[in-house]
Write a structure and sequence with these properties.
elongated; 100 residues; mainly alpha; single chain
Length: 100
């Protein structure tokens, strides 16, 4: 039997790279969409590259600018009200024809 030859997988610096990833994710999470857009402009140039990310950030900024509406009040349901029987479409159509 001969020696096995092949590429060995070495993970030199994997831990430091993973630490960088976590640090970058945390920094990104702290930035607002406006700040992230400014960061992209600084890195890549104004309006250059990262088109999908820019579109997503613009949508977030636009959504945040909208005034939030008050939640609509749900109509009160009478507890004594009789629920309507659920009918199949065929039965509903025949009932409508009879009423006309």
């Amino acid at each position: 039997m001969g020696r096995r030859r092949g590429k060995r997988i070495r993970n030199y610096g994997l831990e430091s790279r993973m630490e960088n990833v976590v640090r970058n994710q945390e920094a990104r999470a702290e930035r607002s969409p406006q700040q992230q857009l400014a960061t992209l402009d600084k890195r890549l140039g104004v309006g250059t590259g990262a088109a999908k990310e820019r579109a997503r950030l613009a949508a977030e900024i636009k959504e945040a600018a909208k005034p939030k509406a008050d939640p609509k009040e749900k109509p009160e349901v009478k507890k004594d009200a009789e629920p309507k029987p659920k009918l199949k479409a065929k039965e509903r159509r025949s009932a409508e024809k009879k009423s006309k």
